[in-house]
Amino acid sequence: MRTSKERRADAASGGAPRSWRRRIVETIVVIGIIVAFDVVCSFALEQYGSLSSVMWSEYRASAGENIDTVVVGSSTAQRSFDPSVLDNALGTSTFSMATPAQPLDDSYTAVEQAIKDHHVRRVILGVDYESLSYENWSGSHVAFARAKMDGEPFSQAVADYWKLLVSPSFMRRADSLCALFPWGYNHVKLNRESIVANVRERMSGDNVLEAAKVVNGGWTYYGRGYGNYDSVIDYSRAREDTSVSIHGLDDFKQTLLDQMTAIAQLCNENGVQLVVVVTPRPAFNVLVYGEKYPEQMSRLQQMVEAEGATFVDANMLHAETYSPQDGDFADGEHLNYAGATRFSQAFAGVLQALDAGQDVESFSYSYNDWDQYLASIHQISAVVSRVDKADNGDAVVSAQAYTGTDVQVEYRFLLVGKDHSTTVIQDWSSSDSCDVPRGSHGDVMVCTRQVGSTADYDRFCMQGLPH
Amino acid sequence: MDLLSLSFVLFLAVSLAAYYLVGRFSQRAQWVVLLAASLAFYCLVGRWQTLAYMLACAAVTWAAPLALARMDARCKEERAAAPGRAARRAAKAAWAGRRRAVLVAALLACFGILAYLKYWNVLLYEVGLAASPASLGLLLPLGISFYTFQSVSYLVDAYNGRFEPQRNFLKHLLFVSWFPQVIQGPINRYADLGPQLLEGHSAKDVPVRRSLLRFGYGALKKYAIANMLVGTIDQIFSNVTPDIPGSVVVFGILLYSAQQYGDFSGGIDMVEAASSLFGVRMAENFRRPYFSVSLADFWRRWHITLGTWMRDYVFFPFAVSRPMRALGARASRLGEHLGRTLPACVANLLVFLIVGLWHGAEPHYVAWGLYNGLVIALADLLAPAFRRANEALRVDTGSRAHRVFCVVRTFLVVNVGWYFDRIYDFGDSLLCLRNTFTNFAPQQFSLWLSQAGVHGSAIKFMGFTAVACLIVFIVSLAQERGVDVDGRILGWNCVLRGLFYCMVIGLIVVTSYITQNAAGGFMYANF
């Protein structure tokens, strides 16, 4: 009689004849374990109460209501347009289908669904620079598709997910297989507390909206798909807040421009007015792109207008149309609730003008007149710094103020010790760099203000020292 | 197309279905499916516009051996008809010259294409005649170095009469274009691969479970190790400054050591597995290189097929050439050992110079190649001194401790070499090497990393990589001891196996998502 060890060895070598029935049973057991693992992990790890699931569940809940305008796009769109403000001003019925990091092909899906369900007459597509320059949003794709699937019949849900797996951005990448394990894409923090909280929330009976409020601390839902935060940007941390530092700086991708064209064509075919809006951000986060900004944005504008859609860059609007306040922003890319309210009021004016047949292009600086735009900035938006080592080994802190071309800037550098004591190491001057005395410890505070000002500073930032 | 993707799985499934379906009717026609799949893959993954280069390489290396065979036949006829011994010898010499001319012309054609596409722009850039190493916009064909070297091995073996040349161009094209090998090798030999591609296979003879297991193991190495580390390594070495702490450099190089191995050997595992699903076993390219006991041993375990190619087609012909024999004779006056090893040392330097150039024409690759050649040459030359030192110190060279010492020593020597391989500026390589010894500064480690953009989350995520490395280490250690690890795993009961697969899949899924923005294709895709 053969021992179990011998049987295992034979089985492993493939040399022993194994019954097909046993092989099939074993394969089914292995696949079953993997599926069970997937289900358990999805239950425990996949974020319950994601903002995508809020949007889709609220959208479905509005099935019987009239919706004539939808907002689509990523979080910048989601947090720029307050549907109630637009509706009060325009008499429309707006729903926000924008979701965090929503890629353009998902915006297409959302628009398609809204046209099918509600025959909407206007689509507001909010974009930013990264909407057109950055492609890898697979986590957002998965969250969007999973949230859409939630209320759908099984066959439609499977078809939707298959469509995601074979989509151009997934098909040739590992995502097309790994997305079969969706918990890997939209998961809670991988620590015990977060996992337990997620399971508890899922089992508590709360709907996704209630769960979203718990998950996204500080987030408030205002209805019609729209939610926002009240937090205000800390300009001294502008360096971490620039989109370039987060995503890098690339040209617009042709594939993304093509997706934008597809949305425009979808709207055209269905007689829907498309308004493409570059959402507002603090001036420093526009200036950080340098000449790339007008160069790339004008490409987008030409493409949008060639498709018969309207293009508005909120960052280029004249001050009399829209002028954001410092406290309107939650970070370098997003408006907060108050900022979105103010912007929505201003934008409603633009739409009224558009409805009245006016040329809204005259409301903005043209990209060809980039210098005029730069001259129109009268404040220091932010200051950032970096530290280098000079050839002699001393640390040199360099600062860069983001402001308009006509603004005269001066800088002051202070050493902030670990006990919070401050020592001026270079007083106010036009010099934007400063040698740090050897042996200094702590941080360097870089202050900046307009020449002639007597304020302690207009903006400041902190720079850690390498030794 | 990633190897771990739905498109590749579908491509593989369709190819396998067609292959075994055709095999049910005619095993002799199965190779046509492989050729169609290979050409389709090349167009899908590479750029179809560059297919012409591969076709040209295949045409040259197909036609030249046939011409050589015809010359052999003509030579035999002439020698048979020759009136005397001197005439026979003259005929042989004349035909040998012509054969050599054909060989050289074919080699020039193959290497000429490779040199033009891969090195010309870099060369112009280095001498200041091009704006950038890619400014000419030359399209580098997928796998050009691999299929060129493989084709040349066929050509030279045919020249040496090792086999009958293939008369059917399409069958030869299949040998050159076999799709699992074009991404990153291995560099197969015709005598091993050719017959397997052309003979039929039946699905029931294929070790499917082993192949899938190996594919998964490769994916684990590629995604959970290599891709996880590539971003951090790039952040460390993309802005080398004079004050970069040695501790950071060593950290970066150790990560590179793991990344390089995970990327290359992981990719090889995946393509070997894909090939074996068709019943075609390609040459092994890795044999646990970080367990090597010397640098020469390392090169017998790392990129094995490149090493054997260099040995057979550069090292041996050069080492036994007339000038080298003369050098050996002259050196033997200074000692028997020197006379025996000096030609080999010079040949090693040449081999590794070419290996460096094979990776790229940039000076740091050349330096890396020469470093390897120099270390191996010195180890050979100084072997008697080391032996005497071991005897004097009474070192037990057969002990486990000595073996561990040798493995660690080799690991360090290999890693010094990685400085020249990974740090893309030769001056920066030297600077980093200097700082490793003169400015280690461990107290600056965290701060410097954070300033280089390596955030705490990246370090935290390396926990996944550490788990994957641990798995690879345990598997490698077991394999090093002769354990059939695949067999052991496949011998587990199915529940245990299922749980194990879940763990591996979990690691791949999580790391694939974490790293999706950091990594491109396989590092060796264009070599």
Mean pLDDT of chain A: 90
Question: How large is the radius of gyration of chain A?
Answer: 27 Å
Q: Work out the count of structural domains of chain A.
A: 2
CATH architecture designation of the largest domain in chain A: 3-Layer(aba) Sandwich
Placed side by side, the strands forming the largest sheet of chain A appear as 2-1-3-6-7
Q: Stretches of chain A where pLDDT falls below 50 for ≥5 residues?
A: 1-5, 11-16
Most extensive chain interface and residues per partner: A-B, 42 and 42 residues
Work out the helicity level of chain A: 40-55%
CATH class assignment of the largest domain in chain A: Alpha Beta
Q: Let me know the largest β-sheet of chain B.
A: none
Strand content of chain B: under 5%
> What amount of the residues of chain A lies in strands?
15-25%
CATH superfamily of the largest domain in chain A: SGNH hydrolase
GO molecular function (chain B): acyltransferase activity
Pfam family, one (chain B): MBOAT
GO cellular component, one term (chain B): plasma membrane
Protein name (chain B): Membrane bound O-acyl transferase MBOAT family protein
What's the short version?
Chain A contains 20 helices and 14 strands. Chain A is α/β, with parallel strands linked by helices and 467 residues long.
Description of the structure:
The complex is a heterodimer of chains A (467) and B (527). Chain A is built from 20 helices and 14 strands. Chain A has 467 residues and is of the alpha/beta class. Chain A folds into two domains: 251 residues, SGNH hydrolase (Rossmann fold, 3-Layer(aba) Sandwich); 85 residues, Immunoglobulin-like (Sandwich), CATH 2.60.40.10. In chain A, the strands form four sheets. In chain A, strands 2-1-3-6-7 form a five-stranded parallel sheet, sandwiched between helices. In chain A, strands 11-10-13-14 form a four-stranded antiparallel sheet, with no helix packed on it. In chain A, a hairpin with a 2-residue loop joins strand 4 and strand 5. Chain A is globular. Chain A starts with a helix and ends with a strand. Chain B has a domain of 135 residues. The C terminus of chain B is likely disordered. Chains A and B meet through helix 1, helix 2, helix 11 and strand 8 of A and helix 1, helix 9, helix 19, helix 21 and helix 22 of B.
